[in-house]
Each structure stands twice: as structure tokens, then as C-alpha cells.
Design brief:
Length: about 100
């Protein structure tokens, strides 16, 4: 059910993000080492920056996984509102015709 607050309350598949981080970490380490050995310092630095970004992302993903399934982004974000049983749009009024 759509509530209109999806961007503020969106969740991601944290385990999938974790495995993508592991995959990116492996390639960033490989790229940094390979370009450093080949004498390409610019590409090695780019892979090193990518390694730093992937490491920070993996740290955040692991932190969110440890916080559990009821993680809320902050104190200013309220928990989900329970769905109400009203229709999503108000019904037009019924007119009685004589």
C-alpha cells in the first residue's frame, strides 16, 4: 500500500548490498594492486578511492544489519503509521434523485 512517504521510509536489501560490497571490495583491491604493479599511479589511486568508498559503504551496511529489522534512520523519523481501512480516495457523495 502506498502512503506517499516512500522516499523517507524506503528500505534496501541489506544482505544484497553486503555481497555487492564484498564483490566491489575484491575488485578494488585487485585493481589497486594490479595498476600499482603495472606503473599506473592514476588508475591505482582511482581504485584506492573506490576501495575507500566501498569500505565505508560496507561499514554502514553492517551497522544497519546489526541494528536489526526495526531500524529507523533517526529520532526525527517516526515509525510507520498503521494503515487505515479507508479507501485511498474519498468516494463521491451519493445523491438521491426523486
Amino acid at each position: 500500500m502506498r502512503t506517499g512517504s516512500e522516499p523517507a521510509t524506503a528500505r534496501s536489501a541489506l544482505r544484497a548490498r553486503l555481497w555487492l560490497c564484498v564483490w566491489g571490495l575484491a575488485w578494488a583491491v585487485f585493481g589497486t594492486a594490479a595498476f600499482a604493479l603495472l606503473g599506473r599511479p592514476g588508475w591505482a589511486a582511482a581504485c584506492g578511492v573506490l576501495l575507500l568508498v566501498v569500505t565505508v559503504d560496507m561499514t554502514m551496511v553492517l551497522r544497519h544489519i546489526r541494528q536489526g529489522p526495526h531500524y529507523q534512520p533517526g529520532r526525527d523519523v517516526p515509525p510507520y503509521r498503521p494503515p487505515d481501512n479507508s479507501p485511498p480516495f474519498p468516494r463521491p457523495p451519493r445523491h438521491r434523485h426523486p
